Amino acid sequence: MLFFFDSDYAYILAEATQTLSLRRDSLHDEGDDLWLGRTVIPRGHSVCEETALLGKASTLHVINNLANDTRFCDRAYVKNGPTAR
Question: What is the pLDDT of residues 22-80, one digit of tens each?
Fold first, then answer.
């Protein structure tokens, strides 16, 4: 994902999927569509912002399951649709 932040929002400008082709829309597996591309999220609600705040303290940020992580388990995108994990 390609994220940008301003003082109020996080902007998702691009994302990748496992099979989506940038050349032909018909060349991807069913259900492997874009999920968040061109989304605006209030600051403080995105996983990517949490990762960016880690700075150089960590070069790897692994979250095994968003539903089991106290930082994210109550977020709408985890509890409701699309039930991100």
Answer: 677 676 777 766 667 677 888 888 877 777 777 766 677 788 898 999 988 998 888 88
Rg (alpha carbons) of the chain, rounded to whole number: 14
Is residue 48 within 8 Å of 14, Cβ to Cβ?
no
3-state secondary structure 28-45: CCCCCCCCCCCEEEECCC
Task: Note the pTM of the prediction, 2 decimals.
Answer: 0.59
d(CA 76, CA 85): 12
Omega cis (within 30) before 42: no
| Number of residues in the chain | 85
